[in-house]
Amino acid sequence: QMVRTKCFYNNYALLVYNKISQADKESFQRSFVRHVTTTLARSAFNVDNFSAYQATAHTVRDRLIKRWNDTQQVHTEATAKRVYYLSLEFLLGRSLDNALLNLGLKESYGEGIEDLGFRMEDVLGQEVDAALGNGGLGRLAACYMDSLATLDYPAWGYGLRYTYGIFQQRLKDGYQVEFPDYWLNFDNPWELPRLDIVIDVCFGGTVNKYTDEVGQVRYVWEGGEPVQAVAYDVPIPGYDTNNCINIRLWSSKPKRQFDLKRFNEGQYEQAVEEQMKAENITAVLYPNDNHMVGKELRLKQQYFWVAASLSDIVRRFKKTQRSFTEFPDMVAIQLNDTHPTLAIVELQRILVDEEGLDWDEAWDIVTNTFAFTNHTILPEAMEKWPVPMFFLQKVEQTYPDDRDLLAKLSIIEEATPQFVRMAHLAVIFKDFVRYFGPEKFENKTNGITPRRWLHQANPKLSKLITEKLGSKEWLKDLRLLKNLEKFVEDKEFQKRWVAVKHSNKVRLADYIKAQTGILVNPNALFDIQVKRIHEYKRQFMNILSVIHRYNTLKKLSAEKSSKVVPRVVIFGGKAAPGYHIAKLVIKLINSVADVVNNDESIHDNLKVKSRVVFIPDYNVSVAEIIIPASDISQHISTAGTEASGTSNMKFVLNGGLILGTVDGANIEIHEEIGDDNIFMFGNLANRVEDLRHAHRYRNVQMDPSLQAVIRDIESGHYGDPRIFSPLINTLTIGKDYYLISDDFDSYLKTQDLVDEAYNKKEEWTVKSILCTARMGKFSSDRAIKEYAESIWNVEPVPVTGVKIN
Ligand code: PLP
Q1: Which of 35, 532, 583, 587 is catalytic?
Q2: How high is the mean pLDDT of the chain?
Q3: Tens digits of per-residue pLDDT, 180-207?
Q4: What's the average model confidence in pLDDT over 513-533?
Q5: 724 versus 438: which is more confidently predicted?
Q6: Both 120 and 196 in a single domain?
């Protein structure tokens, strides 16, 4: 009886599911055809993959708009406290696949598409990435938006709608060449232009003092150049919820139309000059990761963005008709790094000059509204602007004799010219803790969204996990992955785990073949380092170790060589266009790849022992192919330089092991997954200062293996060595600031341990399963809940009672 009931239940569930799915599928196909014929104005017989993508995207967009509207309505009616996430970067990647999965429509729409004669994969592949960010910081913002939506928080993102996202990277003769990323070339179905929401932002002019009849003093900003900020809204659907939140991106537009008088006088260029200047503000994303370049246009971007966003936030608050003293009860604003710290002074200006509050009352509101996240400790990344501002009266009152502390805390860096330190506007570090007390400072471990980084990027693993755990709940409560540990010794499960990894490696091998022409063996160990190219991330050390291993391999006897684990070393990442040393690292990687990949002598019975690949144009959608395919990934920054890292979390979540230094989130990952499942090496952060000192002032011998590798490069083995001398000089004349020599020996030894461990297949599989099982902590849902509860004080507001789809 039990069995019969269960069968009936399953059949019934299937029927109900198919019915829903059938309805979705049919509604999809109707909508698809309508968009082909009306939105795209095409005949139904003339639809290529790109048009199929557009029609599908517009169909999904229709569904999103409905949810988006309902969500805004519910949040407004609930007069809920909202959180605003201000980020100059949102590295969203593609939206279609993610929206289909989050809305639970992937299967029904997939069937609908296939029935119409298209392959889902081809259709999804048509979408260009929204690449409005450089790396970790921008991608973190995107993961956080996914979690905010999924957890039903009333949240908005605010950013800029750059006409050009991060540049596209191509390779020419092994060198990086940059091409503009004009991502809006075709229509962008994932934004809703809000041409009715236009905010004037003023640059320049003067603030004049007026006294009215009753003696009230007012300050009024007059003159200057007005520029308009036009809103474009990007809906962000949560997973398995009706909630769909918004990222509002501002685009700059001239306030005045072109100068007709000049135009008529034949001065065409002068006639449009002002328009061009206004449009330039949001034209391009600055392509520097963890590096500050003090350009005036960048500062203009920042003010334009915070002024428009705050005006919008204040306008929305005023609709509640509450007093400004309640502002911090209704509004929390999170500043993603120092880029939006001008928002602090802008809100104070609005409250005092425009809303007529007195200074101290306004400052109280301001300090209770904002929170700031610091993302880096690299000095070259700290924003400072050469404008004299602000005073230190309060500090002087508290510590009247401490001149030293005064200088450290100053918003102004005393130099010629003077600089404004942006982090000090938002507050950082030790001396600030001493002054303000510790309660103003908290650590929040970053996180990643398991929806994109496992469910979407690794569908086979997601399916296997769901099957083993018996439900999809883990996608909303990542700690449930822990239950996978029960199956870690189950041979059948291990076999399937390995098969999934293998098929992801085949997928990556196909991608590498298509992009670079290089053939790689999916049975080899896939060793991956993909991230922005930066000296502190030490891709240089990685490629130097590749040379070392190659030279060792060449010297081995045939018998010994046959035991060597074949390895594919994969690199990817962009260098900032003006960062010459980083660009030389790319060149060196490609030069080494040329030599190694063409050396027949290291092929053993047709088994290639070593391959080196540089995958061009690393971005979010490329990361989605690379990350699930890794056996080992490298996160090898000099200790004390990487604030967190998030790709490390993505690799481990997908069952890849880490070879890493004791730095950033590697440390917390290590704590969670245990000693046996991570390969750590190198000097600790507390040694770095002493080692640097020794390099600078004493004659430190370079590590002998490293010396041999350097000699090999200098001998011309990898092309004209003069090309690489600025890079080599960073180790010798530059005194090895990133301590490659100090960590090299420990790095090589740990690489050997990786090989040894990889040879023990079953043990490796256990490690891989345990990695995934123990990554629950690193969900961005956990991070967002911590922010919501201990910093923002916002509550979820679910959107219920609304019919969806
Ligand atoms: N770039 C892209 C496209 C990413 O997806 C990520 C994070 O996963 C990063 C950069 C940041 O990488 P990392 O944490 O290794 O610096």
Answers
A1: 532
A2: 92
A3: 999 998 889 999 999 999 999 999 888 8
A4: 97
A5: 724
A6: no
Q: What is the mean pLDDT of residues 744-771?
A: 98
Question: Atom 7, ligand 1: which residue's CA is nearest?
Answer: 647
Please enumerate in sequence order all residues whose Cβ is within 8 A of that of 413, keeping only pairs 6 or more positions apart, or say none: 384, 419, 420, 421
13 pLDDT higher than 70: no
Q: Tell the residue nearest (CA) to atom 8 of ligand 1.
A: 647
Q: Catalytic pick from 42, 66, 316, 375? A: 375
Is the pLDDT confidence value at 527 over 50?
yes
C-alpha distance across the termini of the chain, in Å: 37
- Could you tell me the distance, in angstroms and rounded to a whole number, from the CA of residue 620 to the centre of ligand 1? 8
Residue ranges making up the domain that contains 740? 475-778
Q: Where are the alpha helices (DSSP H) in 35-135?
A: 49-77, 96-102, 106-115, 120-124
Cis peptide before 796 (omega within 30 of 0): no
Identify the CATH number of the domain in which residue 426 sits. 3.40.50.2000
531 counts as catalytic? yes
Residue 451 lies in a domain: no
CA 229 to chain centre: 25
Number of domains observed in the structure of the chain: 3
**CA 726 to centroid of ligand 1, rounded, Å:** 27
Q: Which tens digit of pLDDT belongs to each residue from 289-345?
A: 988 877 888 899 999 999 999 999 999 999 999 999 999 999 999 999 999 999 999
- Ligand 1 contacts (CB < 6 A) are 135-136, 139, 531, 618-620, 623, 645-647, 650
- Same domain membership, residue 167 and residue 41: no
Whether residue 466 is contained in a domain is answered as no
With respect to residue 793, please indicate whether it lies within any of the assigned structural domains. Answer: no
User: Looking at the structure, do residues 440 and 516 belong to the same domain, yes or no?
Assistant: no
Determine the distance separating the centroid of ligand 1 and the alpha carbon of 496, expressed in angstroms: 28
Domain check: are 20 and 89 in the same one? no
Residue 462 is assigned to a structural domain of this protein: no
Retrieve residue 202's tokens: 């003023």
Give tens-digit pLDDT for 584-605: 999 999 999 999 999 988 765 5
Supply the DSSP symbol for 702: P
